[in-house]
TrEMBL record:
Gene3D superfamilies, A to Z: NAD(P)-binding Rossmann-like Domain
Record's keyword terms, sorted: NADP, Oxidoreductase
Top-rank taxon: Eukaryota
Organism, scientific name: Aspergillus sclerotialis
GO function term, MF aspect, one: oxidoreductase activity, acting on the CH-OH group of donors, NAD or NADP as acceptor
InterPro entries documented for this protein: NAD(P)-bd_dom_sf (IPR036291), Sc_DH/Rdtase_CS (IPR020904), SDR_fam (IPR002347)
Family: Belongs to the short-chain dehydrogenases/reductases (SDR) family.
Annotated GO biological process: fatty acid biosynthetic process; secondary metabolite biosynthetic process
Record bears the keyword Translocase: no
Protein name, UniProt field: Reductase
PROSITE patterns: ADH_SHORT
Pfam families in the record: adh_short (PF00106)
Length: 257
């Protein structure tokens, strides 16, 4: 029954679509005919050019298969702004998302605990972990009612103890994996899958523009190169089109542990 995993015509919410990984996810889902609600926080130029590109490629005006794309400015640290975003989505799409890719993330690079102010710890948890809780609450009733849903959190190798950042970032990403595992067991009966993708050293992103930005770390990647946003999007696409897989955290790290 291929319809189990048919996503054409579904609505996906991708947070942080103005960044490298989120934009790559938007491209792949648009190519599969998925309607998109895309968020940005500060990068209006990036999200605008992404939407222009997506419309030109996948949303030929007048075509019955044209996809709808909306953009929403949201600071995901704010529950109120997330709520306003859902009100806009209700208006523009007439439904809540069928697919949630909770990808927006913040990671100020402070490797040692003594450098991390309490405020930075709290903010990182709010953006990376608390937001995924609020976003999931915003989509789950709709997914339960229709007995179909896909939720993907963007975690990190940091959640496994690796990576180049400090314990504030690691806690936020490790927390996501814990929340994902719990939700996957609670939501399976409603045919909602919940997984996370845990990347490391992905280039062409705001976090890591290129290998020169982290020369020593890049030199130690067993595969000898950075990952690409498209490779992360490949895994996200696989998860949203493979509903039997749930409760998994998939490390995508070029051989790093
Ligand atoms: N690059 C890597 O190697 C790597 C490794 C592991 C995990 N990740 C995770 O992958 C995800 C995507 O990051 P990326 O690598 O694509 O980096 P990126 O290009 O810097 O993208 C980050 C995205 O998150 C958004 N964002 C940041 N703070 C936000 C906030 N408070 N509210 C709403 N949106 C916010 C940014 O929006 P604006 O630009 O519009 O402000 C941007 O769209 C993050 O969760 C990150 O932790 C990345």
């Amino acid at each position: 029954m291929s319809s189990l995993n048919e996503i054409q015509g579904r609505l996906a919410l991708i947070t942080g679509a103005s960044g490298g990984i989120g934009a790559a996810c938007a491209h792949q889902l648009a190519q599969k005919g998925v309607h998109l609600a895309l968020t940005y926080s500060s990068s209006l130029t990036a999200i605008s050019s992404l939407v222009e590109e997506l419309k030109a490629k996948y949303s030929v005006a007048g075509s019955p298969n044209a996809i709808r794309i909306s953009i929403h400015q949201v600071d995901v640290a704010s529950a109120e702004q997330i709520e306003n975003m859902f009100t806009q989505i209700d208006k523009e799409h007439g439904q809540r998302p069928d697919i949630l890719v909770s990808n927006a993330g913040h990671g100020k690079r402070l490797p040692n605990i003594w450098e991390i102010p309490l405020e930075e710890f709290d903010y990182t948890i709010n953006v990376n972990l608390r937001a995924s809780f609020i976003l999931t609450k915003g989509v789950v009733e709709h997914m339960k009612n229709q007995r179909w849903g896909r939720i993907v959190f963007m975690s990190s190798i940091a959640g496994y103890g690796g990576g180049i950042n400090g314990c504030h970032y690691a806690s936020s990403k490790g927390g996501l994996t814990g929340m994902m595992r719990n939700l996957s067991t609670r939501l399976a009966e409603f045919n909602i899958s919940v997984n996370d993708v845990a990347p490391a050293m992905i280039g062409e992103t705001g976090m890591i523009p290129n290998a020169q930005a982290i020369p020593e770390v890049a030199a130690g990647i067993p595969l000898g190169r950075l990952g690409t946003p498209e490779e992360v999007a490949n895994v996200v696409t696989m998860l949203v089109t493979t509903g039997y897989m749930t409760g998994q955290s998939l490390l995508l790290a070029g051989g790093l542990k």
